Amino acid sequence: MDWLDIAATVLSVVLGTAVVFICFFLVRGAFATEAIHVVEEKDWEALKGVGQRAEADILMLARPHNRLVVWRNGSPNMAAAELRVRFDDDTGTTREASLKTLIDQELLANFTVGKKLPILYSSGSPPLVAIDRERAQVAFSST
């Protein structure tokens, strides 16, 4: 075995290890981003029986840098998105909230700046805020 064969073997091992590490961190990052964006849906589940309803103005719609799209709720096109909204609570106080959620890619146009968004919120400080999925469509029905 000459030095060229040894160098090629070492280079192959180093490159293979680098590819494995890069893939690991990309997959881990995607799962972490998805976990953050699922919290809003769980908040809606908690609020749907006890939360107060309001109409919020959408101030901003942003997508994470990795443009994550996952299979969820029967849709293969659920895109991670962050909404910044402003609403008036039951005391007349204007509040702002950031909602990290998953929205079907084909429905993202319904969540543009300036549009109204039905929400549920709690009266806590800070309030728990979620999209009211009974009045706003975030995904196509799987049935």
Give the overall shape, derived from the CA principal axes.
Answer: elongated
Distance between the termini: 63 Å
Mean pLDDT: 84
Oligomeric nature of the chains: single chain
Order of helices and strands: HEEEEEE
Largest sheet report:
6 strands, antiparallel
Descriptive overview:
- This protein is α+β, with helices and mostly antiparallel strands and 143 residues long.
- It contains one helix and six strands; from the N terminus they run αββββββ.
- The protein has one helix at 3-47, and strands at residues 52-62, 69-72, 75-88, 94-104, 116-121, 129-131.
- Strands 1, 2, 3, 4, 5 and 6 form a six-stranded antiparallel beta sheet that branches.
- Strand 3 and strand 4 (94-104) form a beta hairpin.
- The longest helix has 45 residues, at 3-47.
- The protein is elongated.
- The relative contact order is 0.19.
- The model has no long low-confidence stretch (mean pLDDT 84).
